[in-house]
Amino acid sequence: MVQLALFPLNTVLFPGGELRLRIFEPRYLSMVRDCTRDNLPFGVCRILHGQEIGEAAVPAAYGTAARIVDFHVDDRGLLGIVTHGERRFHVEEPRLRDTGLLVARVNWIEPRCEPLQPEHALLASLLERMLERAGGLHAKAGPSLYDDAEWVGFRLCELLPLDDDERQHMLQVDNPHQRLQRLLELLPSMA
For 74-104, what is each residue's pLDDT tens digit? Predict the structure, then answer.
């Protein structure tokens, strides 16, 4: 187990994804300083109860480690950071520091690099077309990534119009083929 600072948000970050944040609360400014100084990630967990600002919110038990890859100060003097999602984790022992920062002991969930199954090939084709149109971080992904069931599933979870409850559920699914099957089942309702 490892200890992570947690940043509860009204969003779900997936491994390999990008998340841009504006930081202004003292507890999170301190967290960003410590993570940058020590080259550590922090944990992003979806908020189950509470708000992003103010008192500590109740986070989901599953989240993704976020590593800071860039930062800037905007026109209003607020710190902006760019993070990349790394590994999924399960929260075991959360505790609230006197600064209002939530920290927790977490167990890492190992990635599962498994080849795409033939019944999910349609999803890889759909993802490729979506990324060609959307551009961004994964627009020039190599062909080998489109054969990685976990990578395809996570990218589709980011791009498809899922609600946050469904995204959280998809983050918690350990089997990448089950995640893709659920997405395949949801597609007709998105048309």
Answer: 889 899 999 999 999 999 989 999 999 999 9
* Domain of 91, in residue numbers: 2-109
- Domains of the chain: total: 2
CATH code of the domain containing 168: 1.20.58
Predicted TM-score (pTM) of the model is 0.93
DSSP string, 89-115: EEEEEEEE-TTS-EEEEEEEE-----B
CATH number (domain holding residue 65): 2.30.130.40
Cα–Cα distance between 166 and 183 in angstroms, integer?
10
Cα distances (Å, whole numbers) of residue 177 to 62, 106, 114, 127: 19, 25, 9, 15
